[in-house]
Structures are given as structure tokens and as C-alpha cells.
Amino acid sequence: MMKYNELSKEQRDAELSALWEDMNAIKEKGLQLNMARGVPSPEQLALSKEMLNVLYAEADCTAEDGTDCRNYGVMDGIPECKRLMADVLGVTPDMVMIGGNSSLNMMFDTISCFMNHPVVPGNPAWSLIPDRKFLCPVPGYDRHFGVTGYFGFEMIPVMMDDNGPDMDKVEELIQDPSVKGMWCVPKYSNPTGISYSDEVVRRIAAMKPAAPDFRLMWDNAYCIHDLTDEHDEILNIFEECEKTGNVDMPIEFCSTSKITFPGSGVAAMAASENNMRVIKEKYQYQTIGYDKLNMLRHVRFFGDYEGMKAHMKKHAAVLKPRFDVVLSKLGTLEDTGAVWFNHPRGGYFVSVNVMDGTAKRVVALCKEAGVNLTGAGATYPYGNDPYDSNIRIAPSFPSLEELSSAMDVFCICARIAALEKMNALI
Amino acid sequence: MMKYNELSKEQRDAELSALWEDMNAIKEKGLQLNMARGVPSPEQLALSKEMLNVLYAEADCTAEDGTDCRNYGVMDGIPECKRLMADVLGVTPDMVMIGGNSSLNMMFDTISCFMNHPVVPGNPAWSLIPDRKFLCPVPGYDRHFGVTGYFGFEMIPVMMDDNGPDMDKVEELIQDPSVKGMWCVPKYSNPTGISYSDEVVRRIAAMKPAAPDFRLMWDNAYCIHDLTDEHDEILNIFEECEKTGNVDMPIEFCSTSKITFPGSGVAAMAASENNMRVIKEKYQYQTIGYDKLNMLRHVRFFGDYEGMKAHMKKHAAVLKPRFDVVLSKLGTLEDTGAVWFNHPRGGYFVSVNVMDGTAKRVVALCKEAGVNLTGAGATYPYGNDPYDSNIRIAPSFPSLEELSSAMDVFCICARIAALEKMNALI
């Protein structure tokens, strides 16, 4: 196949009508396929079935410190769960707070906390800063942008490349004291799948923001979500910030949502002593403690961090073939020059850049053909992708057969949109 | 035994030295007993053991609408759980939002929400009202006061009597537009154990607060927590508020913490459409949905509301003898005139008023003798009981034998403190 920009008008028109024939044939099939969200498949959920039985089978719900996990108490989590999640987060257990079922909820609660209670005592709470701003590396996670949007932050997009956010731009933007933080998914970033390079992490750790209460929302959602043995490794943000005297800057989050059961997992956060003081002051009023039976269930099921990592290999065995289908189908488009995409070694997404100005059209065409994708623009604050180019593909949920069909549809739609666009431009 | 205020100085001194002999004998025993918090006993927790197995045993985690409860989604709860908790709350399922493991957390989140997002659009958010105030019927629940204290409300105590809060006072106070709400535990109030009379509920429903965004935090924590078949009934707040055109005023809360497992239960709230719009706007960013497996676990375990009520009778069978011990021991003090206490027909507490100015002394004496009580004053905002008289006794956790010993200690300490006080006064 030739590059589309080397085709004549006649060749493009011929290609377009062939593609529309394929498209119309597909529409008649009445497909209903979904590649919209990063949701584990039933095969993956089945991997954790025994966790539902482990407390009953062992007939004892006592934590290692003697706490009856069936009763009230323990605000920051039972010790064995703090230890397990500390290993996941790469910190010491004393830095960890175990939450409910969702790291998103912990992130929301953290921003919410600082809205009314200053994270650095003596500074104004964020609700008192009328022009408060947050840095949003793009493309990024729509639910992150949802949180800061809800709390009235102006969200400033910062472009990502294969190494992470554009640090020249970040270093310039943090000179503004009303810039209060930055969202980061440092490993297998949602959606681009890239991991922050060592240089980027070091530059982040070395930042000197004008705002003393600038905070990194370090969402390590995919920290152990590798697809292959050859996987990405990122520097430990707390270790790097320790070196630069910035240990109060990062707040790290993770959960077992994509390890055991999404919505019934265990979330955790890690932060410095100063940050934890403010955060735990809040939790002291917010809760008597989160679900200790679910914490115990997780610990009993995995045993320890090694057990959890072994479990992740089972997830990888289910996920890897799905990513392979997506990547091989996208590979058939490469010659056209109509798409650019990454080859992630973990995480939940393949980020595809279709021809500028066609992402919305591709998503709409896919929808007509019965394939549901994340809305174009969703990976940008305010849903505004200035290039109308980025589409997030989530390969995890459909079966391999469904995924194959869905990707065929996607490829046809991406081609159609590209050719239409070129016809319109020229 | 004679009333203490009819004793001569000599008689009081003789009584005091006899009591101190008893006290010193007790101290030598080195007791370690706890009547501090309303915590179910191991016997009660065992009643729900089968709930830990029900999902595994049935090998299917699909909600009635086809939702896979092991996966992401469903922001406001699965339909069968909304229906069950709607029955508990006395509302229709469409008014219900299911939360995480704690109604306290939902109350905190509700106040937190209104701090930055006006519950009545067009009004200033509560964080913008510098002299914001909240009405706190006293004695009341320390964790309620903790929440409004944390968010900077001035907390105005309103005395409770056997029918509920002093409504003359409430009606006067709500003329101040900076009074934004009131905490209520309408049934088996924490700690007094009384239930709001029909007249009080009707007067509450008919209130015309100066603040259009005044909200009732209607914490129906003990709504089905009856000790006997002869139990209290309260009017339905939503029905009463419907009649008075005040349906946006109440927000109701409950949980299964004292029905299944505290900390691993299911919390729920109910509110009008207008309130829910604001609250769900928040939840949409705060969570992808709470723990659906735990919701399903509860529904499968109970079947329906009738099943849950049958389960509560088993709790009552464990709790009733404990309340009987407390009440019969307190009964031995009645002739002295040194205490006044209630006879609750449900809930988790017996509220005791010792002689004015002696509550702190009684709690301290009990502690010396190895009996831990809720701190004196904890039932008042800022820990400030102006009469230093109220002590909350929580009979649920200790065994009957422990409780009997603990109450013997309590009675001795209450006598000593009363006699000391009289000697000091006269």
C-alpha cells in the first residue's frame, strides 16, 4: 500500500469507494463492540475468584496485630495490608494510608482536602486562590481532569512525548504561584502507554515551583501492570525527591482495581510525614476506617508482594494477545501514513493518533459501524484535543475475536476519515 | 438507701469511706474493661459469618440488571441494594445512593461537597460564609461534631429532652441565615436513646429557616436497631417534609455497620431530586462506583428487608441482656438521687446524667479502677458539657460478666463523686 499523501485524487476516490463498500457490509452485521474503557475481561476477573472465599475458608478474620477485622477501627489500614501496598508503591509502610475501593476516590479526597485545609500550614487553602491552576500532561486520563475541573482549577495542557511531559514547558509554568500541582501517570501513562524517562523523573523531582504548596499527583496506576518480562522501570519518585529536598511534593496513589476486582479492590496512597499529617487530620473526621475485611482478603489471597507479582503474570497472559491484535491491525495502516501509534509494554491502552482533524470523525464512523470508542478529545482537559487527532483504544475487555472485528472496523474508519480529509484539504 | 441530699455530713463521710474501701479492693484486681464505644460484640459479628461465603458459594456475581459486580461501574449502587436500603431508609429506590463502608464518610462527603459547591444553585458555597453555623442537639454524637468542627462551623448546642431537640430554641436559631443545618439522630438518639416525638418531627418538617440552603443531617443510624418487640417508631421525615413543601431540607443516612460488620458494611443516603443532583454531580467525579460485590453480598445474605429485620432480632437477643445489666445496676443508684438515666428501647447507648459537676471525676475514677468510658463532655461540641454531667455508656461490647463488673465500678465511682461534690459544696 502507498502513502496516502502520494495518491492522486483518482486513487483516493477509488480507495474511498472500496472502503465504503466494506463499511456498508459491516454496518449490516449490526456489531456491538466496545473498546471504550480500560476494563478487565471476565477471564481476568476469574483469576481472583478464590479471593472471595479466603476469609470464610480460614474462618478467622484477625489481623496480625490482633485486630478483629470484622469490627470498627484502624484508620490507616491493617499492618499487613500497609506492608503489601507499600511494596507496590515502593515506599515504607509508615508512609502508607489504605483507603476504600478506589484510588480515584483518594485523589478526589486529597484535592478536596487541600481546597479547604492548606497542605502547607500558613498558606491559603486552594479554594481561596481564584485563578488556581493545575498542569495536565496530554493526552492524559479524563477522570483526573474531571476532578480538577470540578474543583474549579484552570487546567493547563502540557504535551507528552515518549519520555513524559515536556519539562521545559513544565519548568516555565510552575513559575506561576497559582499553579498548584500536576497530574502524572508515570508508568504506562494513560493513554499513551509510555513511561517517564529517568531524566524526566529527575527533572520533576528537582522542580522549584513558585507555590510552596505545589503537589504532584503521582498516580502509579499501572506500576506492576507489565505485559511482558521485558518491561519498563521508572525511578522511585520519593527517592529522587529525597535527594532534591522535595519530599513533600509527591503524593503517590495506586489500587488493586486492575489486580483483583475493579470496584472491589483496595486503594492506597503514600506521602511524606508533613503531607500525611494534613491528610490524616481529615481522615480522622471522615472515617472510622476503611474495609479491613477486604484488606485482609487481599493479603490472604496474595500472601505477599511476590504473590501479587505472580498473579500479574496471569493477567499479562490474558492481555498480551489482545494488545498484539490491536498492534498488528494498526500495523496494516502504517504504510498509509494515516496513523501514528505507540507499542506499550504494559498498562491498559494503545494511544492512536489518526490524521489531524479526523479523530472525531473516526469515532463517529466507528459508532455507526457498532464499535464504541472513548470519545475523541476525552484525553484532553475540557475534551479539547487541539489537533483532533488522539484516540484511546482499550483492548482489555473484548474477546480476541471481537477485538479483531472491532479493529478491522477501526482501520477502515481511520482510512476513510484520512482520505476524506485529504480530499477536503486539497 | 436514703437520698444523698438527706444525709448528714457524718453519714456522707461514713458512706464515702466504705465506698473507698470497695474502690481500693477493685483497683487491686487490675480490671481492663471497656464501655467506651458502641461496638458490636464478637457474638453479634458471628451472626453474619455466612455473608463472607455467599458470593463464592453461589459462584455468580451478576446483579439483577445483568451488571457484573466484579467489574467497574454503576455509580449509585446495584438496583437490588438500592431497593433494600430504600426500605431501611423509608424512601423509594430512586432517592437512594449507595456508598462505601461508612455513613459517617457519606455525611462528611456531603458537608464537604456543600463547602465548595452550593447545594442551592445561586447561593454562596458554605466555605464562603465566614460565620457559618450548625445546630447540634446535645448530648449528641461526637463524630458528627467532629465533621462540622473540621469544616469550621460554629456549633450551637441545643438541649435535648425526651421528645427530641428543644424546638422553641431551634425555631429561634434558624432565623439566622448563617445557620446552615442541624445534626439529628431521630431514633434511639446517640447517646440519649430517645426517639423524636411526632410533634418534634412535624415541627422540624415545618421549619422555615432563613437560609435557603439549610439542611437536616438526618442520621437514622439506629432505624431498625430495636431491643424489644415493643419499640419506638418515628415519623417519616420525607413524608412530613413533602406535606410542608420542605422536601429539599432533609438528607437521610444509614448503614449496615451495626447490622453486619462495622467497617465492612454498606452505607446509604437518601435525598430529594434537587439535592441528589448536586450530590451526584460530585460523585460522578469522586468515584466510578462503590463496592458492588459487598452490596451483592449483603443482598444475597438478607434476601430482602424482612430478612434483615429477622437478623436484627438476633442482634437484639444478644444486646438486650446487656442493656438489662446496665439498667439494673444503675437502678441501685436511683434512690441516692445521684444519677438520672434513660431506659432506651433500642440503639447502642445508655445515657447517664451523674450529679452536675462530677462527670469528669466519675470517668477519671472509673479509669483508675480499670474501666474505660467515653470521655466526659464528648457528647457536646468542643467536648464542653456545661453541666459536666453526661456520660455515655456503651454496653454492647463486653461480655455480661465483664459488664456486670464494670457497672459495679461505675456505680461506686458515681457515688463517690456525688458525695465528694456535696461535701465540697456544703
What is the H-and-E element order of chain A?
HEHHHEHEHEEHEHEHEEHHHEEHEEH
* Cα gyration radius of chain A (Å): 23 Å
Given this structure, which CATH class of the largest domain in chain A is correct? Alpha Beta
- Number of helical regions of chain A: 14
Superfamily at the CATH H level of the largest domain in chain A?
Answer: Type I PLP-dependent aspartate aminotransferase-like (Major domain)
Q: Determine the structural class of chain A based on helices, strands and strand pairing.
A: alpha/beta
What spatial order of strands do you see in the largest sheet of chain A?
Answer: 2-9-8-7-6-3-4-5
Task: Count up the domains of chain A.
Answer: 2
Residue-averaged pLDDT of chain A, rounded? 96
If you consult CATH, what is the topology of the largest domain in chain A?
Answer: Aspartate Aminotransferase, domain 2
Chain pair forming the biggest interface: A-B, 56 and 55 residues
Helix content of chain A: 40-55%
List segments of chain A where confidence is low: pLDDT < 50 over at least 5 consecutive residues. none
**Largest pleated sheet of chain A:** 8 strands, mixed
Q: Nutshell version of this structure?
A:
Two copies of one chain form a homodimer. Chain A has helices spanning 9-29, 42-46, 54-58, 79-89, 103-116, 142-150, 167-173, 198-205, 237-244, 273-286, 292-302, 305-331, 359-368, 400-425, and strands at residues 33-35, 96-98, 133-138, 154-161, 164-165, 179-184, 215-219, 250-255, 267-270, 339-341, 350-354, 371-373, 390-393.
